[in-house]
């Protein structure tokens, strides 16, 4: 019996919906443990301890609002779709564009002609064609087997958001990672004293078993997520600094010099824009969208462009 791997990939969407429920459950239990059980009651004590409780609760809510805002922007925002019947505007763009091809992402000979390299040898066209979508593929565009479509500047398909991470929601995804890491780290630190006292309180029965279990589980969950997210944050900072996506890592290793790496400042601006006031929000200014084509995911300057 033949197994359709692409149908199995599409089944990951179902898993993604459970992941959304899991995220909601973790947020709810963290809120209950930090605000309701641990630091909310401290507001009535007065003095320095009460001020500390207010500070923790305010920061907790700020980070929670930001991570949820960024999360929903990743979930509901289109990561970047290829316009129907898209074609490069000029031959120069074809020569300067880049896109790795696979067996299912072949070049359509009737659409793009081969070019000659500087040594006179024939070179494969760098703008691809997706045989599944029956459409041309802009530079850095890849076909997602889960979403069953091509995604502009695709980074990866994330089951946690039931969506691809691409050109138009990559900033929101990075901010979601950052704020979630900060939130889980903060939860771990503010629950640490309660975790240390867990066994003594359980032995003396000074706190209800249910509340003890909630605090214990919340601490362990937030610690695990914080450590895991630290790895992802460091990885994506490295990718951002070199203007590389997760699916381009192997392609970059084969290259002598990664042509999309324009320097850390310009690489950062191709994701976060130039408006400093909006860097920490999942928003982009109209001016940046008009002036930085990479934010739209169809055109990307290369090292040769910047040196010209």
TrEMBL record:
Which residue windows are transmembrane per the record? 12-39, 51-76, 212-235
Q: Which domain of life is it from?
A: Eukaryota
Q: Which residues form the Palmitoyltransferase DHHC domain?
A: 129-251
Enzyme Commission numbers on file = 2.3.1.225
Q: Which keywords does the record carry? A: Acyltransferase, Membrane, Transferase, Transmembrane, Transmembrane helix
Any one Gene Ontology molecular-function term assigned to this protein's record: protein-cysteine S-palmitoyltransferase activity
The UniProt entry's GO CC annotations, sorted and at most eight, read: endomembrane system
Subcellular localization is given as: Endomembrane system
**Chief subcellular location:** membrane
UniProt-listed InterPro entries: Palmitoyltrfase_DHHC (IPR001594), PFA4/ZDH16/20/ERF2-like (IPR039859)
Q: State one Pfam family annotation.
A: DHHC
Q: How does it sit in the membrane?
A: Multi-pass membrane protein
PROSITE patterns membership: DHHC (PS50216)
Q: Reaction catalysed by this chain?
A: L-cysteinyl-[protein] + hexadecanoyl-CoA = S-hexadecanoyl-L-cysteinyl-[protein] + CoA
Q: What is known of its domains?
A: The DHHC domain is required for palmitoyltransferase activity.
Q: Which family does it belong to?
A: Belongs to the DHHC palmitoyltransferase family.
Its name, as the record gives it, is: S-acyltransferase
Source organism = Rosa chinensis
Upper lineage: Eukaryota, Viridiplantae, Streptophyta, Embryophyta, Tracheophyta
